[in-house]
Specification:
The protein is of the alpha/beta class and 133 residues long. It has helices at 33-43, 65-78, 92-102, 107-110, 113-132; strands at 2-5, 9-15, 22-29, 49-53, 84-88. The chain has a five-stranded mixed β-sheet.
């Protein structure tokens, strides 16, 4: 599972049982992410969480870094058996928008921020799946 955590929304992506293809799951209100994950984990097995870590181009933290760190702490507290790996998300939103254009998604759909969050999480997960093979 990959999460693109934000102040308002969190994009979630998952993979198939063979861990070949990443698929966007949905966008959840960030205030509801822990209850959502509790329900999801009760129904689905998750081996690992990839968590997008926001950094500036120089590698220094952004204004969102403490927010993601607080979520990570809360996640570990609630789900101690699921390992968390931080991944660089510096370019994921830009790449997500470009991917949406290239896939032929209409402009109106590309402007829905929830779609960008899901695609960004999906791209993080797909990149991880390709890297580990």
């Amino acid at each position: 599972m990959a999460i693109d955590y934000g102040k308002k929304r969190t994009g979630i992506a998952v993979t198939d049982p063979l861990q070949i293809i990443a698929t966007g799951l949905e966008t959840v209100d960030s205030k509801q992410i822990i209850p959502y994950l509790k329900k999801y984990f009760a129904a689905e097995q998750v081996e690992l969480l990839l968590l997008g870590e926001p950094l500036n181009w120089d590698g220094l933290p952004t204004h969102a870094t403490p927010l993601v760190a607080a979520f990570k702490k809360e996640f570990i507290k609630n789900f101690p058996s699921i390992p968390v790996i931080g991944v660089d998300e510096r370019n994921t939103s830009k790449m997500a928008r470009q991917s949406m254009v290239e896939s032929g998604m209409k402009k109106k759909q590309r402007q829905i921020k929830e779609n960008v969050d899901i695609v960004a999480a999906t791209m993080m997960l797909q990149e991880y799946l390709q890297w580990r093979t």
